[in-house]
Automatic annotation (TrEMBL):
Residues 637-658 are annotated as: Disordered. It catalyses: S-ubiquitinyl-[E2 ubiquitin-conjugating enzyme]-L-cysteine + [acceptor protein]-L-lysine = [E2 ubiquitin-conjugating enzyme]-L-cysteine + N(6)-ubiquitinyl-[acceptor protein]-L-lysine. SUPFAM superfamilies: Concanavalin A-like lectins/glucanases, RING/U-box. Residues 1188-1226 form the RING-type domain. It comes from the Eukaryota. Its EC number is 2.3.2.27. Keywords: Cytoplasm, Metal-binding, Methylation, Phosphoprotein, Transferase, Ubl conjugation, Ubl conjugation pathway, Zinc, Zinc-finger. Residues 637-646 have a biased composition (Basic and acidic residues). Coiled coil: none annotated. Its main location: cytoplasm. This is E3 ubiquitin-protein ligase RNF123. It is found in: Cytoplasm. Pathway: Protein modification; protein ubiquitination. The lineage of its organism: Eukaryota, Metazoa, Chordata, Craniata, Vertebrata.
Amino acid sequence: MSSKGGGSTALTRRNYRLASDTDKPKVTGLVNEKLLSDYLHHVFPASHLPRPPLASLRKPLGFQDLGAHLERLLTEGEPTEDTRDQPVDGCLGPLTVVLDHTSGFEGLLFVDDDLLGVIGHSNFSSIRATTCVYRGKWAYEVLISSQGLMQIGWCTLNCRFNQEEGVGDTPDSYAYDGNRVRKWNVTTTNYGKSWAAGDIVSCLIDLDEGTITFCLNGQSLGTAFSNIKMGPGVAYFPAISLSFKESVAFNFGSRPLRYPVEGYLPLQNPPTADLLRAHKLLGYIKTVLSTTLDTQVLEKDSACWSLHGEPTTLVTLAHIFNYFAPLMIHYLRLTTAILRHEKSRKYLLSNVLYPFIVVFFYIKTPLRVKEAGLEELIPTTWWPTRFDKEGKESKDESAEERLRRRAYERGCQRLKKRIEVVEELQVQILKLMLNNKDKGTGEASRYIFLNKFRKFLQENASNRGVRDVTPQPLCPPEYMVCFLHRLITAVRSYWDEGKMRNPGCVSSDEAYVPPQLFYNGKVDYFDLQRLGGLLSHLKKTLKDDLASKANILMDPAEIQATSMDDLDEEEESGSAQRPFGAVAMGGALARPSWLSSPTLGRANRFLSTAAVSLMTPRRPLAPPEKVKVRTLAVEQRTEEDIEGSHGNDGLLLGRPLEEPDHPITEKSLLEILDGIVMMYNLSVHQQLGKMVVVSDDVHEYAVALKDTEEKIARCPARRPDILEELQKSQKVFAEKLNHLSRRLAWINATIYCKDKMLDVYWLLRVCILTIQHADNTGTLFAFAPEFYLNVAMNSYSSLKNYFSPSNCMDQLPGYEDTLTQLAAILAKHFADPRIVGTDIKDSLMQALASYVCYPQSLRAVERIPEEQRVSMMRNLLAPYEQRPWAQTNWILVRLWRGCGFGYRYTRLPHLLKTKPEDTNLPSLQKPCPSLLLQRHMAELLSLDKDMAASFLNSVLNQLNWAFSEFIGMIQEIQQAAERPERNFVDTRQLKVCATCFDLSVSLLRVLEMTVTLVPQIFLDWTRPSAELLLRRLAQLLNQVLNRVTAERNLFDRVVNLRLPGLESVDHYPILVAVTGILVRILVDCERQGVSRAASVLLSDPCFQLHSIQHLLGEGETSPAAAVLPQTPAVHPGDPAAAPAERKHFSLHAYTDYIHEEEEQKVEQMLAFLTIESKQAAASTPTSEEDLCPICYAHSISAVFKPCSHKSCKACINQHLMNNKDCFFCKATITGVEDYSKKPTAS
């Protein structure tokens, strides 16, 4: 916690000159040595003496020996070695608990210098601690740095692990796995919740009761194991097994546990000596502050002395801060006062505060309400007590509930005002650090802060770099959230001050990051992914565009140097690895912690090696002169490199022609703004999502309490035992809600309040404007970092999902325009060829899919310019084989939902009685079709015949695949269910099966949409491929109908099992989608089209009339058909057991979902097909010689040229889509002509 007094951070006499007796103190403002000695003895009195000695008898004390004197004072009273090493009852091993890097590990591991952090570097590595416990109740914590495969818990000394079996896979070892959400002790079962990076897992063991429990972020996950092995010779070590590149950090008690549990002790005692030192240091600081410069102190010998000049106080404080810096974060007013002094501020920024800077701005969320004083601030608690059928909060409330809610809100306001005082102090500290006018003593504070800030971002961003061998630990995301909001407030304040001084600048409301920062090499992005790929690749492929648009020249030799440097990177990373014999040793390969001395990692390869030729972005009429400028690493930059001077634009070198030539703001603020966006992307958004859990918990407990109260009201008087249990539950729920409602008030005041919402909204606006400016540069848009698009999407998501309903998005200034601008970005860039990253493309597609699910955002899509809307629809209709098609299909379905046959539901009919997991999911929103976008789709498909054929062929191909996969999977599920022994179907297989079913339904809906909007694609046979498309459509519809409607079929049996995970699989969604297509082509079209559709449908060999009859419940009338048999594979008592009887499916049963007019159309279609099928059966059969030799289903209707072989048109057209060779002779087909020979009767 502390450093030695004589360390490198102590200030020397040369820094602050101290005068001798011959100097003139009153004139120069300096002190002589005697007065200085008296002052230092006054501040640092010898505590071991019963009374302070006379000044004449004291040993002189000066700054030269103050370090040693202070060290002696701090070590007085520390525990001796004998008292320090006394064993703790129930615990064996060293008192300082660390990871056993000498013998207690298996596999390849990287261990930190402090022996508390570990990274897996092999398939499945294991390591245990140096201390074990055998009696009592003990706890330790683990910070999850990566959310991959890990098993954390306890093991005995006898456990033997290998590369396949770790903690929990052997007897006497017990583990929790938050990645797979399971607990492990030889066997495994479901347990707990899923963890994420930044979470803290508490591992508790009770060796009095024989239980092991785990907690996630202070919330108990319940008892994981009971009756564990205990007795003589049995002791348990903390242990972990983790896979490749997963990392964690342990806390055995060297620091206070983040989430202590009453009754459980940490394995390591608190650092008593450090706490004693901290108490003494606080006393010294208090003495310094109370001894002002004009105070006179009288000794017994009547010697009088006075203090003159600030240097004496500052140097004294500097010595104290060498020990006290980690504790300054708890004394914000003291910190503010010290930072107001220019030299102290710069000294602390340069040498002491980093990397503690982030901790200054953290306001910890209390887990213990009493300790935080929330009961006094919020004496009255409140939570919702009225809910509708779907579990949503009802706005109706009684007068008593209204008074209670208002009292709770007043308490929340009191809390908010208290917190605002702390936040204002934090902003003041940050504004002092961002001062750029204090240049009298060297570099301004802002530029010191900026360099430290970029190093902080680099250390945290490197954890996500694909090239890193050893990922870095993350700064806790809760710290990041607070730091981000204070930084936004301070930056906007300075930004607007600059706007007042220079009215030509941009206001903070219109702030953005200019695009030249992304490609001129002045800002290091730490190898983060660009939209167009790797930076070195972009510099080579876009060098001509850089020269023509930004006046940046890349020399061939520099490009070669960059390429060679990239090739050498793997060799460097390989040579940096420690020797095999030291892989588990601390110290040989330490990764810098966010709370340790910063280690500047590998700089961006291009920035550190390539010389970039930049031109001053002034554009005279004469040809511009190129000036070569070599880019500098972060620590080498000066103020001039950032702000520029004498025609040098600094960070803004290389302004493209499309970028307006006017000042934006101070250039250092632009780089800080860029860092704010990066910081949000690193972990702030993730933390915003995590804190919503508290609100969800309040809702769940409120529902449970309401349900319990209703049960108490209905409990019969003859069952007092049940009534007693219900009342106990009621008390537990009420106590929990009292605690959670106060904690939620704290979270709403610090994270989800209106001003924090405005910060996130401002960040969204910054990203939108930045993307727009970068997009205007054309091909140079590829240089923009991916995280700008990510933050634009994620910040909108947080505004919509995390801040509501406490703060409404509609009240944000300019909200509709912002929605429209974001919609234009999503619509344009989800298929932008300049973006090459698969992950960012998928994110854009998913964001657009979510965007069209909500009425307000869908209307924003409709407000973008028509040209962009048409372009978006054209991209959505591109062949599915060229890109991920599931999300594209989902978007089209959402545009249609509400217009299709029986397609006006929010939830499927058979799921109405079940409670949805999250009613805010996009899939559970009410239908909001877009007639405007449907019209654009119809126009595109109607005018572009080639695109229409290509699109529909891809849809039919994907439907064929999805439905075939679904049928294959339900066959496997049925076979598993029919085995006599009890089998568990893999949940992943069930999920994939349900996904294939949902995809099949959505693809059918897209076909229904296409048939409705542009029926001529199938029915106008003058269009190329129209007949083929209609035959393929009929074939697939018949296959789906036959599989789903056949009696005692596979589909019925699996649906009746009602397996968890297959809830969406039911007759209604798929049969109604097929019915919608059939009704459109057989009823709603003009006569010629109906005739062609009926002819093709009836001529398909798979057509069965009873499949159509099944839709109206008019299938076979045998007793066996009336009732489906119980599936014998389901065991008695199984909750998934099928009912003994089940009625036929019939559209008539869904009157709330299907209109009467739609039912009449189905009856009309059935009557029409019945007549047509009878006429087809009575017609003269075709001779076998005249049937197509490929499919034997249709008459020969085409002859190939030049070989003259024959087939039906459907077969040859489908064949020619992929192959130009003849079926029979393999000759290249040059043409296809109609075959006009009349078929002969057999």
